[in-house]
Give the backbone structure.
Amino acid sequence: MRKKLLKNRSVRVKMTLMLIIIMTSVILLSVLINLTMLKTYYTVKEKKTIKESYYQIQKVFQKDTVRKNDVDEIAKTYNYRVLISDGSGTIVYSSEGEKSLMYKSLWNILNENLDKISNQIKKQGYAVMTNTNKSMGTSINLMGYLDGDYTVIISTPMESIKTSARLSGQFTMYVGLILIICGAVAMYLYSRQFTKPIEDMAKAANQMSHLDFDVKVPTGSDDELGRLGNSINELSSKLELTISELKTANNELQKDIEQKVQIDEMRKEFLSHVSHELKTPIALIQGYSEGLKDNILDDEESKEFYCDVIADEAKKMNRMVQKLLTLNQIEFGNNQVNMERFDITEMIRNMVESSKILVEKQEVKIIFDEPETHVWADEFMIEEVVNNYLSNARNHVTDGGIIKVSYCRHGNDVRIKVFNTGDHIPQEDIDKLWVKFYKVDKARTREYGGSGIGLSIVKAIMDAHKQPFGVYNTAEGVAFWFCLKKAPKEETDVQENENDTGSME
């Protein structure tokens, strides 16, 4: 019953109900004790008091003389009925008069219990008994002897005791009811001080269960609730830190898994493309080498041609493998970007001079006329980018055409452009140029020994530098470009800029 009553109740209500139950039980127990034991207690107490009054009467009683005033005072003090008689039965003192109801009733009681009274008197000098009759009801009576032959009878009715016990029980019940109501109201109001911290802790725990650790429990006290609140706050902080570490570890693990998947995919792609690209040169080398081995050629000129084909295909294979290794190192981060300041104009000028020799037969004009320009980048990587752009331009420029390298400056950025006259790149193929082994014109690519890797290397290098790059068609041909951060011209300018930056910080 109690469990059913308290089920699904708030702590505040439960505390109030428990107080009501406890107080009600205590009050009911008090009333029950009053009704069952108070009468007995009063009776025992009254018998003891009536004995005390008897001893007091003995003190004030003198032989042959009754000090009526003193006896009256004792009777009034205890509210007792007192009757004193001499040896002949003559009443010498009565608190209610000689002809009173007590006078007649007491003598009747004495006569009825004479044997019992006599035995008690012989033992202790007096006798105390509880008697009931129609005229006096239930009463406590004492009979004893005074000096000489005088007899004293003291009596007090039991009705007052019964009334006192009943009134006490009623009073206890009424006071208890008032206390229950007042206590319940006080407990309901005061219990807020205890339930509020508990509610805050419950709210915090609920938010923690949803991985929200921003909420904190107010801890103003140093009691058990305050220490519990501190423990919850500490637990919240530790859980937040632990979950953060777990998320970090999970993200790193996810990256490792993704990287592993990427590596596997790239490995499969690498093997597929390499096997495809090497198939033709290997077949050529195998065929021509077997022809030489079988001595199917009679003249030296044919043998020399066979040897040149084998050597040429071997060179193509070597270049492709080298480019693949370079691309692999850049994509997997093994080749870290080493940022430095260098003169890109000087680097491009040397590469342009080398390219002029390669395009002499095509009567191609290479133009480069730019002033000294310093940039921030990895010099060796950027050299690879320029080399691939120039190589691509040489392979696709029209005979008698133009290859032009130029700069375009935008604030702190330098945009390097490599232009060549020739056929346009189909619009649908522009975004695919940077994919490994992709070739727009496979026949032409095969003609100059291209592998479709050069532009993939460009993409990997520029991604490593976090710089933009691209290609677009012009009216006369095609232009490839990339951007780098511009650096001060003089080394002293670099130092001054660093000093200025330091002072600003």
Remarks:
- The two ends are 74 Å apart (CA to CA).
- Confidence is low (pLDDT under 50) at residues 442-450, 492-505.
- The chain has 14 helices and twelve strands.
